[in-house]
């Protein structure tokens, strides 16, 4: 099989070597060697030169076995470092199955629900394990894992989530600058705010009081590079416990892929609040710089010799997990800029979609290089023994396995806000007479669930057998699981996303 | 050397369940009556210590022995945030000297540099010490020196940098700030591509909030542009330096066009010849420069776009050349820029 000619130009160093450029060069050597060896092995296995250009398969079976081993047999002792992140281990594993299109049996679901409920704190929220303090990060992971494995009813998990106490827990973490501690006596961090907003949106516990000041905080974490840092410093702007909006709150920490995803997703989650609460002309709406955010995100994509993977910071190395944190974030930014089906006429509806490179470009109007990102995951992200990785020669772990797969999914599918889907959901919406915040909650529900796959735009490097499921760009759950849990907690019947066949 | 552990070095290998002084506690297993999914295979030491920790938390015990127990747990798992939280509360409740705790944690912080909790714990300690210690500034200054030591083992460690920025802002004393620019410059001399150092520079120069009239922003901007141009001349294909330059121009609302002469030196194929007049304001690319460099082309296109009118065509030409030749990975993005410019 013939491989496609590839550009192997290294990152230019201008003849000046520094620790950064030396590490970069050795990484480029490793990635290039990996690419060539994958192709060489494929050529040895199938020496016919007339076959189409080789593209590596996603070794689904090996990855499923890896996930299954973790789920059934458990994790080896070096995962003690993750023993305060047990809901994450479960979420990464279950969501890995979902992205690979594998459902869970009833017994596994039951066992999962029991395990997660053992981590719910008596005062609200979930801890990293039983008997651990509640923390925003495991609360997100536990609720998302319950969205996958749970259901209503006794022992189903959903009715056992103490939503009122989660809300109280959230409020107890709130700071005067609109941010939240991740746990009592712990740090403020954009990741925690993402987790809080995702959970509040999924469980229908959003209130204006909860998120007052939060958009301004998120905006303050954007750095001069365009991405987000991990927090900002409120001290200069604080007058007692009130923020003076005229004084800057500089970001702490440089622009970073993880925080940029969390900051951007938080910003999207906060749009319903901004839309319903900042309606008076006298109110100054906080803003972020979407243009510089987009620029930063696309600048993080590595060049050809880096196989098109994403970096997490300027002048750092590509890593498979940023396929999701930054690759996925490009989709969120596109959503913020108003791309998506229904907001424009589908120019390509009549075109036939031949499986050719040129055609790929024609029908792809996303702003990152989706083909290259898929190549990175397929060539560099797969461990031969199953599971996915940062980059060769690292070993697989639960975290990289999910975020490489989710990143691959984000590169295969375009999931964007659809005006049409929104209209359908809105037509079916029924106000909940018991809820005080119908306007905000309706908007949160419609905004979150209007993200659906832009049909006909999926692209699979390596062919359709490499297809993985689409994931919701805000939650990293499938759209089906997002709809399932939200429909339940918002008491809505969600219309099917698939057109009914004519009778 | 800092004191690493406290009272019981004799029986280090002993499990808590074997220690006579812990016999009053009934350990609590992690999972009671359920068969957990995806379990971790703990070492006997970790399992033992965390079972006693759960019992302590449940009983709300505040005692010296809690300090030993939490120390043992975070030594095995520095990400055990509940053990850190409980330790901090115990230190405060027992009125334990916090400067002693800070020193105890020095070796720990270096060893577990990448863990959030080690830095947050120091932040809690420094916060408390600012209002209680006899000379908080000397503690802060010592802490800045310690952070330099930590960063010397990993010059881009995220939490360490974030912590340093917090510390400077929190104590906000000229004596502390004044060493920062020389420190950044030392780091950039070693590695001009260290983006963490560039970000720190931005924080120190532009993030710090000062009293009105304390500095002349025009002078500072002039100094920063000159410094950044020199760093770009040294290694033109360095996105960190270009991002800094863009950042400070946007922050001060300075038109990109004001740097056109400089940028043009880097957006052409060949470096200008030796015989050209030396222009100190516009340092020329070094001998090894690989030109044109993509960040300069992007910058020049932004200048054209900023000028508008007829110049938009030039911007479009450059974006096309980036997409087709100089930065093909981002072809989609450059096409988007073209589309945006045409739609205006």
TrEMBL record, chain A:
EC number: 2.5.1.58
A GO term from the CC aspect: protein farnesyltransferase complex
Chain intervals for the UniProt region annotation (Disordered): 1-21, 343-363
Gene Ontology molecular function: protein farnesyltransferase activity; zinc ion binding
Cofactor: binding comment: Binds 1 zinc ion per subunit.
Keyword Metal-binding tagged: yes
Highest taxon listed in the record's lineage: Eukaryota
Cofactor: Zn(2+)
Family indicated by similarity: Belongs to the protein prenyltransferase subunit beta family.
Role this protein plays: Catalyzes the transfer of a farnesyl moiety from farnesyl diphosphate to a cysteine at the fourth position from the C-terminus of several proteins. The beta subunit is responsible for peptide-binding.
Subunit structure as annotated in this protein's UniProt entry: Heterodimer of an alpha and a beta subunit.
PANTHER family, per the entry: GERANYLGERANYL TRANSFERASE TYPE BETA SUBUNIT, PROTEIN FARNESYLTRANSFERASE SUBUNIT BETA
Protein name: Protein farnesyltransferase subunit beta
Automatic annotation (TrEMBL), chain B:
GO cellular component: CAAX-protein geranylgeranyltransferase complex; protein farnesyltransferase complex
Keyword Repeat annotated: yes
Cofactor(s), names only, from the UniProt record: Mg(2+)
EC number(s) recorded for this UniProt protein: 2.5.1.58, 2.5.1.59
PROSITE patterns hit by this protein: PFTA
Tree of life domain: Eukaryota
Single GO MF annotation: protein farnesyltransferase activity
Similarity remark: Belongs to the protein prenyltransferase subunit alpha family.
Protein name: Protein farnesyltransferase/geranylgeranyltransferase type-1 subunit alpha
């Amino acid at each position: 099989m013939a491989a496609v000619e590839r550009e192997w130009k290294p990152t230019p160093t201008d003849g000046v070597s520094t620790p950064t450029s030396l590490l970069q060069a050795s990484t480029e050597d490793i990635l290039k060697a990996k690419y060539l060896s994958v192709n060489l092995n494929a050529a040895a296995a199938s020496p016919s030169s007339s076959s189409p250009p080789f593209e590596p398969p996603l070794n689904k079976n090996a990855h499923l076995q890896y996930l299954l081993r973790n789920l059934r047999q458990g994790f080896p002792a070096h995962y003690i470092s993750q023993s305060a992140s047990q809901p994450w281990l479960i979420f990464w594993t279950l969501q890995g199955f979902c992205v690979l299109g594998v459902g869970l049996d009833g017994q596994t679901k039951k066992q999962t629900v029991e395990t997660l409920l053992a981590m719910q704190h008596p005062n609200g929220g979930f801890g990293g394990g039983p008997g651990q303090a509640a923390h925003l990060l495991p609360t997100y992971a536990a609720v998302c894992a319950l969205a996958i494995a749970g259901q209503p009813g006794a022992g189903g998990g959903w009715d056992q989530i103490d939503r009122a106490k989660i809300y109280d827990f959230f409020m107890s973490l709130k700071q005067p600058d609109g941010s939240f501690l991740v746990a009592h006596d712990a740090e403020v961090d954009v990741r925690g705010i993402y987790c809080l907003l995702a959970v509040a949106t999924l469980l229908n516990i959003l209130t204006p009081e909860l998120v007052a000041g939060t958009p301004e905080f998120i905006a303050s974490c954007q750095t001069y590079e365009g991405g987000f840092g991990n927090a900002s410093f409120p001290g200069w702007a604080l007058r007692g416990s009130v923020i003076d909006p005229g004084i800057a709150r500089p970001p702490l920490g440089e622009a970073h892929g993880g925080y940029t995803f969390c900051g951007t997703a938080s910003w999207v989650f906060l749009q319903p609040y901004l839309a319903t609460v900042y309606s008076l002309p006298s109110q100054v709406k906080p803003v972020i710089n979407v243009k510089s955010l987009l620029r930063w995100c696309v600048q993080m994509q590595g060049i050809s010799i880096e196989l098109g993977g994403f970096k997490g910071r300027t002048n750092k190395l590509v890593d498979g997990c940023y396929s999701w944190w930054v690759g996925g974030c490009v989709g969120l930014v596109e959503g913020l800029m108003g791309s998506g089906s229904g907001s424009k006429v589908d120019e390509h509806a009549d075109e036939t979609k031949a499986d050719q490179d040129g055609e790929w470009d024609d029908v792809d109007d996303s702003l990152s290089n989706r083909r290259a990102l898929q190549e990175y995951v397929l060539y560099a992200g797969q461990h031969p023994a199953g599971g996915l990785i940062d980059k060769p020669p690292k070993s697989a772990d639960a975290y990289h396995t999910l975020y490489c797969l989710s990143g691959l999914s984000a590169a295969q599918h375009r999931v964007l806000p659809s005006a049409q889907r929104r209209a359908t959901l809105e037509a079916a919406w029924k106000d909940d007479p018991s809820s005080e915040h119908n306007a905000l909650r309706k908007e949160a529900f419609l905004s979150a669930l209007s993200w659906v796959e832009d049909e006909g735009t999926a692209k699979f490097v390596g062919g359709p057998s490499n297809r993985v499921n689409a994931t919701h760009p805000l939650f990293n759950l499938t759209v089906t699981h997002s709809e399932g849990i939200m429909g339940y907690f918002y008491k809505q019947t969600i219309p099917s996303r698939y057109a009914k066949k004519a009778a | 050397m800092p004191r690493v552990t406290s009272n019981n070095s004799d029986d280090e290998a002993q499990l808590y369940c074997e220690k006579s002084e812990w016999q009053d506690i009934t350990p609590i297993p992690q999972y009671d009556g359920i068969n957990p999914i995806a379990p971790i295979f703990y070492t006997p030491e970790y399992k033992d210590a965390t079972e006693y920790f759960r019992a302590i938390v449940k009983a709300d015990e505040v005692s010296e022995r809690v300090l030993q127990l939490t120390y043992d747990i975070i030594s095995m798992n520095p990400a055990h945030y509940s053990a850190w939280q409980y330790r901090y509360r115990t230190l405060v409740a027992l009125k334990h000297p916090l400067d002693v705790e800070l020193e105890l944690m020095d070796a720990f912080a270096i060893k577990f540099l990448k863990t959030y909790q080690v830095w947050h714990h120091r932040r809690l300690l420094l916060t408390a010490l600012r209002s209680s210690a006899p000379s908080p500034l000397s503690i802060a200054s010592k802490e800045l020196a310690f952070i330099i030591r930590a960063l010397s083992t990993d010059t881009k460690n995220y939490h360490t940098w974030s912590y340093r920025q917090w510390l400077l802002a929190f104590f906000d004393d000229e004596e502390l700030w004044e060493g920062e620019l020389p420190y950044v410059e030392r780091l950039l001399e070693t590695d001009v591509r260290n983006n963490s150092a560039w970000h720190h520079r931005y924080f120190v120069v532009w993030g710090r909030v000062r009293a009105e009239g304390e500095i002349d922003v025009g002078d500072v901007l002039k100094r920063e542009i000159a410094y950044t141009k020199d760093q770009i001349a040294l290694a033109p294909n360095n996105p960190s330096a270009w991002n800094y330059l863009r950042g400070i121009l946007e922050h001060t609302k300075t038109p990109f066009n004001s740097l056109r002469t400089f940028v043009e030196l880097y957006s052409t194929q060949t470096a200008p010849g030796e015989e050209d007049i030396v222009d100190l304001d516009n340092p020329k690319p070094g001998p090894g420069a690989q030109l044109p460099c993509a960040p300069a082309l992007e910058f020049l296109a932004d200048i054209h776009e900023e000028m508008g009118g007829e110049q938009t065509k030039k911007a479009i030409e450059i974006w096309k050349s980036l997409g087709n030749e100089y930065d093909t990975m981002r072809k989609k993005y450059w096409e988007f820029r073209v589309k945006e410019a045409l739609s205006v």
